[in-house]
Design goal:
This protein is of the alpha/beta class. The chain has one domain (2-171): Aldolase class I (TIM Barrel, Alpha-Beta Barrel). The chain has helices at residues 49-59, 77-93, 121-126, 158-164; strands at residues 2-10, 17-23, 45-46, 64-70, 98-102, 130-133, 154-157, 169-171. It has an eight-stranded mixed sheet. The relative contact order is 0.16. The mean pLDDT is 97. The structure holds iron/sulfur cluster.
């Protein structure tokens, strides 16, 4: 997997101050996407063990709430598999930190048989706290929304959703 950028302190992609990782690769091609160069899976730099270490170190300070994965799309099947080792380390070494991910797919696409379901999916989602799902839809753009760009996108509490079997929102 390649990645475009790491932002060590961001406040717009989830609660608190967060490390944001922008990975490469996205098939959704949303009109007026904010980050079109990252559609290409080859864009940016290779994600290496050193990159993983940089992120882990960036998450350690107590004022950092957690990691946000975005892109590109960190839930493309190739990227799910590539990011699993990082998420395993965060849960094992930094259990107080939260993980958010932005996906151009719908939550339902990650259920068995869904178009974004792969061997990594169940573990990958179990290691995350929140998924902001759905493509950016220009006609539903609303700049007053917190942590999302268009009204169709949902901020999903993954643990509660997986437990209940129904979509549970983390916030409106
Ligand atoms: S899912 Fe995100 S990165 Fe992909 S095209 Fe849509 S807005 Fe752009």
């Amino acid at each position: 997997m390649n990645y475009a950028e790491i932002k060590p302190f961001s406040i717009e992609n989830g609660t608190g101050v967060r490390v944001s990782l922008f990975v490469s690769g996205c098939r959704h091609r949303c009109k007026e996407c904010f980050n079109q160069e990252t559609w290409d899976f080859q864009y940016g730099k290779p994600f290496t063990e050193e990159t993983e270490e940089e992120i882990i170190k960036g998450l350690i300070p107590t004022y950092i709430s957690g990691l946000t994965l975005l892109g590109g799309d960190p839930t493309e099947p190739e990227n799910q598999a590539a990011l699993l080792p990082l998420l395993r380390r965060i849960r094992a070494e930094l259990p107080g930190k939260t993980v958010w991910a932005y996906s151009g797919y719908l939550y339902e696409d990650f259920l068995p048989g869904g178009r974004a379901y792969c061997d990594a999916t169940e573990e990958y989602l179990s290691l995350m706290d929140v998924m902001v799902d759905g493509p950016f839809i220009l006609a539903e753009k609303d700049i007053s929304l917190k942590f999302r760009g268009s009204r169709n996108q949902r901020i999903i509490d993954l643990a509660a959703t997986q437990k209940s079997g129904q979509i549970v929102l983390a916030m409106e």
